[in-house]
Amino acid sequence: MTLTTRLFALTGLPSLLSTPRDALLIILNRTTRMLSYGASSLILALFFASLNFSDSQIGLFMTLTLLGDVILSLLLTLVADRLGRRRTLLIGATMMICSGTIFATCENYFVLLGAAVVGVISATGGDFGPFRAIEESMVSELTAQETRAEVLGWYVAMSSAGSCAGTAVVGRVVQFLVEGRQWEAKEAYHVVFWGYVAMGVVNLLGVWGMTERCELGGGVKTPVVLEAETEPLLPAAAAVAEAEAGPSGGVVVVQREEEEEDDKEPMKKKKKKKERGWYKVEISRSTLSVMLIFWALVMLDNVADGMVSMSWTTYYMDQKFHLPKSMLGDFLSGAYFLAALSSVFAGPLARHIGLVNTMVFTHIPSSAAVLFFPLPKSVTATFALLLVRVGLNNMDQAPRAALIAAVVKPEERTAVMGITGTLRTLASTMGPSVTGVLADGGRFWVAFVVAGALRLTYDLGIFTMFINIKLNKHEEEEQTGREGDEEEVERRRE
Q: How many other C-beta atoms can be found within 10 angstroms of the C-beta atom of residue 104?
């Protein structure tokens, strides 16, 4: 293998290029969406300040917006596999368009708050809506175990690239409109939200281009093979067909249970159909035993992220150094570019040192940068810490999604990832209001110190609790069962 080939493999591009077109569309949608989120994170707090809202009102707005995202994400992700993943993403894209239109045309605090709470607006620059969990589940469905972390790495990398482009372009657009065209700042910010609407339309079109392979099981129903030799094959197939023809709008789940007979005949396994509504989701105990600990640690991390979101961080830098908006955009854009670059190597790194090690040892420097962020007195040193924080912050995202996919059952992934996203958002709602109160009281810097300490606690907790966990257990069992079913069918044919 030549040096060029090895370097090419290290980027994870071979894995990305081998994935179906649907995965590329998902990555494109995430990129354009994060472009709009990056743009809004740069100007959201500044937009409210231009409307003469207090810091406490800004913090309350972010908190309630994130709380609305919790409810929306929970509702949509829990029903996505039954309602249809693509249909759910269409709903989310439509809500994004509606919210962006209201922000582009209105200036009333309560109208804007209602649009953000009920719709889809990124208050922090993060992807806290219903999209991410569903998309990560779709990518996991479309990829194999060996390539999943690398493809998810590109999913994260391109999202950072989108944020990079969004902040760079918006910073210069606002600067041009305010200084070059003599617009009021709030009018320039309204233009940014029209761009937000345009990215929502792109997401809508992207979802329309996706195929059935994105749905649970690739849109293909797997036939049930009976294990009892004494039960005829054709009646069994008829029973399955009858069971699947359930009431419209519902989902029928077939379960087997054993019944003992009094005579000496071998035991027969019979199928029992049980109807469940499309809104009901079950998660196994084995999954919960792992995820409850994981969720507690992730919530700790996201409390910290909510306290020092990109909107608050840019606002803090603006207050401390009074920088031009174009310079703020350039700073954040450079940090996001580094994040995109580093995320490309998260997948290959995880293949060599493991998912948990990649999550922890790339995230610790980022957490330390948050802790020490208020210390520098110069713009250069502050920017250096911002580069470390944002540049390495996303390297744990692809391994984290791959870790979840590796420890839960395939049919539980969308629900588990949805709950994970919901809890992340719920935890994030606790932070902005606290930061708003601290900022009003002249103690803005305290938010960064507390957030850095919480993030480091998360890092050490993940390493302690998950370093020895067994991965891909359920997929191996499923593969073994599938091979056994195929052997059974072949034996019956003989």
A: 16
Cα–Cα distance measured from residue 292 to residue 420, given in angstroms and rounded to the nearest whole number: 10
Q: CA-to-CA distance for 194 and 458, rounded, in angstroms?
A: 37
Pick from 467, 459, 128, 458: nearest CA to 297: 458
- Answer yes or no: are the C-beta atoms of 133 and 414 closer than 8 Å: yes
102 Cβ contact list (under 8 Å, min separation 6): 111, 112, 115, 119
* pLDDT tens digits, one per residue of 285-312: 888 988 999 999 999 999 999 899 888 8
- Report residue 433: phi and psi, to 5°: -65, -40
* Sequence-separated (6 or more) residues with CB below 8 Å from residue 300: 427, 454, 457, 458, 461
Contact 54, 315 (CB under 8 A): no
Q: Which of 325, 276, 392 is nearest to 174 (CA)?
A: 325
The strand ranges marked E within 242-369 are: 251-259, 268-276
8 Å CB contact between 111 and 102? yes
Position 492 confidence tier, pLDDT thresholds 50, 70, 90? low
| Distance separating alpha carbons of residues 323 and 293, to the nearest angstrom | 42
> Long-range contacts made by residues 109-114, C-beta under 8 angstroms, separation at least 24?
109/51, 109/53, 109/57, 109/61, 112/61, 113/61, 113/64, 113/65
Give yes or no for residue 242 having a pLDDT over 50.
no
Those residues with Cβ within 8 angstroms of residue 461's Cβ, 6 or more apart along the chain or in another chain? 297, 300
Q: Residues 434, 447: contact at Cβ < 8 Å?
A: yes
